[in-house]
Records
---
Amino acid sequence: MLRFQNVVFQYDSEEFNIIDGLSFAIAPGEFVSVIGPSGCGKSTIFRLINQLLPCKAGEITVGGERIDGRRGYCGYMPQRDLLFPWRTVHENLRLPMEIRGGISREEMDRRAADTLEHVGLSGWGEKRPDELSGGMRQRAAFARTLLTGSELLLLDEPFSALDFLTRISMQEWLLRQWENDHKTVLFITHDVEEAIFLSSRVLVVEQTPIRRLVSFTVPAPYPRTRACLTAPEMLSLRENLIDMLRREVTV
Amino acid sequence: MKRKNANLPAMLFLFALLILWQIGAMGMNAAYILPSPTQILVRMWELREPLLTAHLPATMLCTGIGLVISVVLGLLLAMLMDASPSAEKMLYPLIVASQTIPTTALAPLFVLWFGYTIWSKVLVTVLITFFPIAMTVFDGFRSVKTDMVDMLQTFGAGRKEIFLKLKLPAALPYFFSAIKMAIPLSVIGAAIGEWLGAQAGLGYFSRRMMTQLDGAGVFAPIVLLSVVAMLAVAAVSWLEKKLITWRGSL
């Protein structure tokens, strides 16, 4: 679904390549988390995928085709929900379709209403975003991401700003969403437990500059419940990952 | 009810000031220098005919034309500076510098250029008013969060869509603030212009009363002018409340 081949990227303000010859691939329908400490460059990977930043060398393909010049091949969900306060929830959901164009008003409204129901927010469409709770806003933002119509979803620490209880219920909610529609999800987080609980595979940013991502398959079948986190092999994976990340962070 | 209570201290203070003024003016007893508030009110009533039928419309026309030109000019400048960094580098310093020009001191020159026509007054008004509009609206465009722009780009939006769907709505509250600032300024601009040379208008009328040593007559058109400006600002505030329900939550 997604493939990096010897991708190189450098920020103008830096003297080294923050991403240096990185290759990895993600299969269709996978839920993959990328973990690493803050500032390690994991968000840069996302910005390369959605072309907010240009590669210096190498190529990125989505669905077998190079992304250069293409639009709408991935849905991006940023850290903050970024719902427009002057639009109702329903109108916010319509936004990606308005921009893509070529969809009739009725069709947009129908899809927005369907997706709103799908994320459990039916009846909230006419509300303003500030009338929603943090978890509801994230669900609306997720619905907006789905409405880009892309098979590849990039979720950039979407739950990091939520309180603990809301966060774990949103994780369970996201897992059910994914178990139903099996989109390909690339999920950035710095929370090891979140990564293990959600993903089929975890990619660890071992060092900056990023030359490779270390892949761990999560030893638990879907559907999952939080109980799986206490299984011995999950606990040892968790310790493993924490150790790895700790080695990078020098306090 | 709550709002009325909130305004009460200001009202009481204003009333106290007016009473002090009244007492002071009565003590001085020199209406050609310091007319009392009641004298001004009486004079306003006596002069209602020429004030409301001839001079108020003249000033409002000048203010209106000046305001419209300022809004168009201010918006155009703001959009231009937003669209192109080189335009910003070229225009921004000039716009800021233009505000250090003492417009009032130049105004007599405008009268020489345009004569006693309305355009000398409009020019003063525009020079005073376009600046806050251009600056405030430009700030509004810049207030847009870069991650929102990024998100729209990942949806495939181009510059036009980013402007229409994000920047324009985000700048709307700024636009209203700008208009609320611009209304009193444009009224002042028009009055200054008229004061310096005109054949009608509240500023002109006030000056004529001055030559007749009619203190209350000097104040009457000015009071009328402030009342009209306050009403206009109140009307815009009302419209703003109706249109923008999301202020501050960006």
---
Amino acid sequence: MGYRWQTRNYFGFLNVEENRKRIAQVAAELIQEFQQMMNGDNLTLKLIETDTSELKLPKGLALENVDLRTLALPFSPEAVLPAMRLVFVEMKNQVRFALTDRQINSISTGTPAISTSILTNPFERCRLH
Amino acid sequence: MKGADFIRQILNPPRPVLLKSPSNYLYTKLSQITFPPNVSISPDKQLLRTQRAAENAARSARAKVIRAKALADHEAHVRGKQWQLQELDRRRAEEEKRREEEDEQIRRVNELYESRKFSNTRATWEFAGLKESVRKYERETKTQWRHSPDTFPEEFEEATRKAEEKEAERKREEEEKIKFVTIKTRNPRR
């Protein structure tokens, strides 16, 4: 019997309403920080120009301490994966980005063949350093 | 893409498509692949070997079953034969016993007969306590012991009545036969 992650899959995690709120709040805060970082001083000017009337957010979503106008600013696809990584870190590893339990259970920590070769072969070790 | 879209995506991730029959799906997909004409597919020797092995295993299993059935049949046959022989011995012994008993009965009757006190009639046999053997004799030979009016008047009367009935029935049948013959001969003449 191998090691099993004591974490939930993504869908199971999202089925809980509280978790949905948590993840949305974290994502919104993250986006706000991202926009502040990327735009700097220009952010206030951009926020004045943006219109939140066309903003499509999930129903019944209440975000706290977040300026909704930042969510209407463009968010580049390159930033999606790092942002998701940060969101899941904020969830404190209670959820894995695996859609099913089978995917979770098939996650392994390193390949033993490679790790043993690196550890046993001193030259390999030197080359790594 | 906007930040709101990101939130929407992260709250409603695309669900994985689960195929109802994945094996069939794969088979159909693979069978749709057409090879170019210069490609010749050589036989899969490993597959052939496994198939042959499976066939041999099935054949040997079938043979084993047939052999076991044949063995069971043979054993049953032998057992049946043994039973038949036992039964034959048992019947022979019974027959022997019965014959001895009958001989004993006949000996007793003969003793009585020779003492000239009784005639060899049913009454004698009954007196000797052999009523059952008389009935059995009658049953087996399908005959009736000759009754005399002195010893068994009722049975004598019944036997006489039966004989008369039988005679009357015989006569009636003969008459009917004659009628039938005459009618049959007349009809084609007309």
